[in-house]
Amino acid sequence: MDNQNISDLIEEYIKEILVEKDKIEIKRAEIASQFSCVPSQINYVIKTRFTVAQGYNVESKRGGGGYIRIKKITLNHHGDILTELENVVGNKLTQHDATAILQQLYNYDIINKREGALLHSLMSSEILQADFREKEDMIRANMIKIIIERLRYEEKE
Questions:
Q1: How far is Cα 147 from Cα 123, in angstroms, rounded to an integer?
Q2: Contacts with 60 (C-beta within 8 Å, 6 or more apart), sequence order
Q3: Do 140 and 98 meet the contact criterion of CB atoms below 8 Å apart?
Q4: Any residues with CB less than 8 A from the CB of 123 and at least 6 apart, and which?
Q5: pLDDT at position 62
Q6: What pLDDT does residue 1 have?
Q7: Is the pTM of this model over 0.70?
Q8: What's the per-residue H, E or C state across the chain?
Q9: Per-run averaged pLDDT (10 residues), the chain, 157 residues
Q10: Domain 79-155 maps to which CATH number in 1.10.1200.150, 1.10.10.10, 3.40.190.10, 2.30.130.10?
C-alpha cells in the first residue's frame, strides 16, 4: 500500500466516487467495514479532509438510517468580505450589530433585500426570547457565523 495510511486510503476512495458525482451519500458503518476500521476513523477523515475550505459541504445524520452526505462546492468571490465580517462577530452579537452585518451583506450584493429582511426578523429579540440577554447575544452570534459560513460557497447544480 505504497506508504499510505488508512485515512489517506479512505479519502482517496471517497474522492474517486466524487469524480463521477458531485454529491454522494455514504454510510459510516459500511465504509468502516470495507476498510476494516472503526466508524470514528471515517468521521475523522470526513471532518479533516472534506471541509468547506477544501471545496466540500458535509451533512450527516446519526442513527440506524444515518448517512454522511458530501457535496462538491465552489467558493464564491466574496471570501475576503465574509472573512472580515466573521472576524467582527466574536462570541456575542447584539441585535444592532447583527443588523449592521446584514446591511453590509446587502451592500456588497451578497444577499438581496428580501433575504436581508428575513434574516433580520430571525435576529430579533422577539424570536430568540432567551432567558438572559447574554445568551440571546451568543445565539445571535452563532446564527450569523452559520449564515456567513453558508454564504462562502455555492453548491454545484
A1: 11
A2: 46, 66, 67, 68, 69
A3: yes
A4: 95, 98, 99, 102, 140, 143, 144
A5: 77
A6: 43
A7: no
A8: CCCCCHHHHHHHHHHHHHHHCCEEEECHHHHHHHCCCCHHHHHHHHHHHCCCCCCEEEEEECCCCCEEEEEEEEECCCHHHHHHHHHHHCCCCCHHHHHHHHHHHHHCCCCCHHHHHHHHHHCCHHHHCCCCHHHHHHHHHHHHHHHHHHHCEEECC
A9: 79 92 90 93 91 81 80 80 84 90 91 96 83 84 92 70
A10: 1.10.1200.150
For the record, the C-alpha cell of 46 comes out as: 470526513
Q: Say how far apart CA 46 and CA 68 lie, in whole Å.
A: 9
Classify domain 6-74 by CATH number: 3.30.56.130
Sign for the CA dihedral angle at 82, 83, 88, 93 comes to positive
